Amino acid sequence: MSDLQITNLYKRYGNVEVLKDINLDIKSGEFIVFVGPSGCGKSTLLRTISGLETISAGQLEIGGRVVNDVAPSKRGIAMVFQSYALYPHMTVFDNMAYSLKLTRTPKDEIRKKVEAAAEMLQLGPYLERLPKALSGGQRQRVAIGRAIVRNPQVFLFDEPLSNLDAALRVATRMEIAKLKESLPGTTMVYVTHDQVEAMTLADRIVVLKDGVVMQVGTPMELYDHPQSLFVAGFIGSPKMNFLTGKNAESYKATTVGVRPEHMEIVPAGKGVWSGKVIYSEDLGSDSFIYVDIGEEDAIIIRQEGKTPYKSGAQISFAPKGDLYHLFDKAGKPMTTGASAPARATPAAKSAKPANPTTQGTPDEGVVGGAGAVAMPAKPARKPAAKAKTATPKAGAVKTAAAKKAPVRKAPAKPKV
Asked: Residues 90, 147: one domain?
C-alpha cells in the first residue's frame, strides 16, 4: 500500500506560517500534481513529505504508517530534484546503482534492477557513459532511473523538467507519462508551475496559494468548475478573461469570467462587448487577439487559424452560448440554494426566449451549463394549444379511413 494521508499539517519558520492546515488524502497509484505561483508552498509541502523538512504540526502517513519522525531514507520514498544531482565521475550504470550498493544489495540483483530501469527509460545504450556525454533529457532520465531501482512506495518530483528546453520538456513529459503507466501501484507526487504538465499528467491537481489548498480535483473539474477567482485565473493558458464593473453589470455579477477559447467575434453591434484590437498573434493553428475594453488587462480572444484583425481594428465579441462563469464580491461562484448556480443572462438578451437546444441543468460554479461543455437538451413540453387540437377532426378521420392508410387511432378521450 502506498496511500499518503496528510492531516492538519502546518509548517512554520519562526512566526511565519508557510503551510496552513493542509489536508489531503492521496490514494495508492494516484498521480497528484501540486501547482501554484512562486512562494505558494508547493515545494515546501513536497519536502515535508520527503522528510527533508520537519512538520511543525499535524500528521503525515505513508502506507498507513505515521512518519512524522521517520528519517527520509526509511520512508519508502524516492525524490527526483530539479537539478539532476548526478555524480560526474560515475557512469550512468554506477549512478543508478549507487543507492543499492549502499544497502549492500547483491551484485546480480543490482545489475538486474539497473538494466530493467534502463530499458524502461531507453537508457540501455548509455549505461557506460559519463553524465557529461548525455543531453539534458537523458540526464533527467538517469535521475528518474536512480529513483526507480529503489522500488519506492512514493515518487516525489520537484519541477524535474524546468531546466529543459521546450522540445526536451515534451519528450521527457512523455517518458514520465509512460513511467506512470508502467508502475500503476506507485503513488507519484509532482510539483510544477507548468500548466501543460499539470493538465496532461495529473489524475488530480492540488492548487495552492499562500500555503493554503484552494481546490483539489481532476484537471477537467478545475477547468470547468473553478471554485474561486484565483483557481479560474490560474488553470488554463492563456488565463481566463475577467470582466468587471460596467462590463459585468448586464450579467448582474461582480465579475464575469470567459476563457479565451470561449469568446467569439460577432458582427458589429451584436456582441456583448466591443473594443479596439491592440495586438494579435498568429501561431499557425491558432491566433490570439488582444482587445482593449477598459479593463486592467486586455481581453484575449482565441481563434482557430489565422486572424484578419490587426492593431487598431474595432470588433464586437461575446461568449459562445453559455460558456461563461459568474463570481460574487468574495470571488466565489454565484449560486442559489445549496449547489445550483444562479442562471443569469445579459439584460439586453433577457427578453428573448431560451434556446431549447442549450438548456440543461447548471453545474456548480458555472452559469447556464457545464462550464466548457454544452448540456444536453431538455425534452420540450407540448404547448397547451397543441393539446387542444390533438384529437383529429371527423372529416380528417373519414378521409384517412377512405384511403385505408395505416394510421394509428387516436386515444379515447377520457370522460370528465
From this structure: yes
